[in-house]
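Hello K.,

You asked for the raw outputs rather than the summary table, so here they are, unedited. I folded two proteins back to back in the same session to keep the settings identical. This is the first:
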Amino acid sequence: MFGMGWSEMVLIGIVALIVIGPKDLPNMFRAMGQFTGKARSMAREFSKAMEAAADESGVRDISKSIQAAANPQKFGLDKLREATNLTAPAYKPGGATEQLAADRAETKAKIDAAMAKSVADKQAREAIAAEQAADADMIAEDAPKPARAKAAPKPKAAAKPKAAAKPKTANSTAAAPPKAAKPRAPRKTTPKGDA
């Protein structure tokens, strides 16, 4: 009932016993039973009325014809199959299917042979190219190397004479007097009222 288990129903009963009290609890259960009975009877009457309306409008006849169309024996598809000879087996030994399979196998064998030949030719070309490259490397190693002419050393530029150092005096170690700062020109300002 309403997706509740026994533990939930016991809990509801205990809460009802505490809230309503043991004296009024049987009366409440009786009223609840009468209410559910009336609700069920109303639901039964409603469903019977809907079925009667469906019978009057012909919905049942339409649903029966749809079910008959969905059933191939009642629809007559078995007779149609017999008339078109679709019940006979589709595979016939020695027919076009076997000939097609044999043609495809023969074509596959030709393609595989051509691919194998192509791969073998490519490997042979790569092997010949590798041998030629190795021969060229060996010839290059055995050939005498031309002597390289040594370039004459560049003449060094004459050293520039350094300026003579100034003799240090006692005053040179003392801090130099600070330079006088230039006076700044005054800023031009306009009065606020003249603008």
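The second followed immediately with the same parameters:
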Amino acid sequence: MQKYELVLMLKSQVQESERNDLLSKLEKDFKDNILLKDEIGIKQTSYDIKGQKGNNSVYYVSYYLNLDNEMLPELRKSLLYTNVLVRYDIFRLWQNQEMFEYEKLQKELEKIMDSRDDKRFGNKVTFLSLPENDKYINWKSVAILKKYLTRFGNIKPRRYTKNRVSTQKKLRQEIIRARNFGLLEFIKK
């Protein structure tokens, strides 16, 4: 059994009953495997979804799952052919990675960022260079991920961030996930 996170991006324009039908069907099929559900709600994306101008709000739902590898195709099959779903992603979590609830994480990060008095020299950011802050590397922690992007939207190199190699790889992976979910821009204009 592996720990996975399933992130669903649902159309915000659809009626709530259609959205709830899809979620209840999914929860009924995999009720024994769902450890935690995080309904993030409607959020604005950084870019237009599917190239449609003005289509930049999405309803996010995240599930923390405990699945066998044989169950993944069944999960993907249950998400096919739905007109409510914009995009979804299933990814395996690291060994010691925990799933955060969006609202709690934002409050915790806000508290940390307010109390932090970093003397910044140039583009150097040192928040994740401390091992105890590794737990905050998550696609939901957009405030921290933005600090590791240049003004053009590129990921800052390790020589500026002073991160360990493993931390930098995890950071890069989570920034890419946040971009795919529309929470960060691919490039800044």
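Residues 12 and 58 are 5 Å apart (CA to CA).

Happy to rerun anything if the numbers look odd on your end.

Regards,
P.
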